[in-house]
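Hey, resending since the last one bounced:
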Amino acid sequence: MSEPGLACCTPLTGTPMSPEQAEQVAPLLKALADPVRLRLVSLIAASAGGEACVCDLNDAFDLTQATISHHLKVLHSAGLLDREKRGVWVYYAVRPAALSAVASLFDTAALTPA
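The structure tokens again:
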């Protein structure tokens, strides 16, 4: 099986997606469909150096650290985030290839007349 987050191949407007491609892409879209997770990706991507510590992300939400950690785990499992443990904290970074793959799904160039 290919690495999560890197399954997208062609835009939805190009050729019809195979059942296998749809199975690989759906978890990415499901992970991003939650407002908290979407904000987490945005906060991490906008952070200095493109990474953020869990300790910094907790302050942006009125949620427990356990809940934030759960959402980060979902994003990591979907292949959207990398993580690195430093001491007692975990730092997260957005995987550019995964976001590019998701973005390529919505490339509408094929709909524009030449």
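Residues 85 and 91 are 6 Å apart (CA to CA).

Sorry for the duplicate.
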